[in-house]
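Protein chain data
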Amino acid sequence: MKKKSYHICLSSGDEVYCRSEEDYVYCFNCLALAVAATGSDLLAESIMSTHVHECVRSTVPRDMIRQHRYAYSRYFNNKYYRSGRLGERYPFITEIDGLYHTLAALSYVIRNALHHGVAATPFGYRHSSARAFFRKELGFDIHPELLEESQQYRHLPAHVRCPSSYKMDKSGLILRETVIDVPDVEHMFMTPRSYLYYMNRLSGEEWAREQEKDNLSVPPLTLADIEKGTTEKNIRQMLANERGRSDYGVMSDIMLCELIDKEILPELGIASVYVMSGSEKNALGNRLYSQYRLPESQIRRCLAM
């Protein structure tokens, strides 16, 4: 059976998907292992605090998603004394076809942190594929110290080993460039300059006109299409963020979660937000709002309210 290309979005719903740097690492590792186990090809991804975007080529995309979600949910539930399904019941899946439709999907996914206002450029966000392509030409061809194979188990699901082609750095992260089909993606973007152009190009009608070159019956992909699977759909704000009109000094979800999990909860003698009562969460939420003036929606999702 021939592999098809898909854009996939997994949303965390009314909570966060990753609460710490360790979570982002483990989430990508689970994705990498699911890709290998199902014989799929990973083209690009971006792991955000509330959702995960993926562009993959696969014959069994739903099986790949199931394996990814199951492994990560077990880890997350065990770590935070949580139970049940993590995230929305059904992932958002869109089949993509044609060179320019694929380039649009790849670009939107790689630039996701820019659209959500957590990085000034795609390359300023560590939890995406942005730095995996044209690494030598763009100055990202660094060689991190690798973790010995005997120590990799600490960052993987039980009884699972990395494929021999995967490499893991000292932080426990499986290196993206050893998982992603870098040559194929670079071939689609053609040159480093073209890749930079797509990373800096503003969304708009030009994207739609370009996708018409594929001569497909499907409509052109837009930013709104890519974000359909998330709970955050303020497209106007995303487009403003794309132009650099965002305050990068505000407290991010991961900063707030780590403040809660590593400073406040230990002081209170509480193991996790998931074992707190409703009244305890309300009291802590009021404290956070009073002290930091954070948006109520951000406080609620970081406290899993």
Notes: The first helix runs from residue 21 to 37.
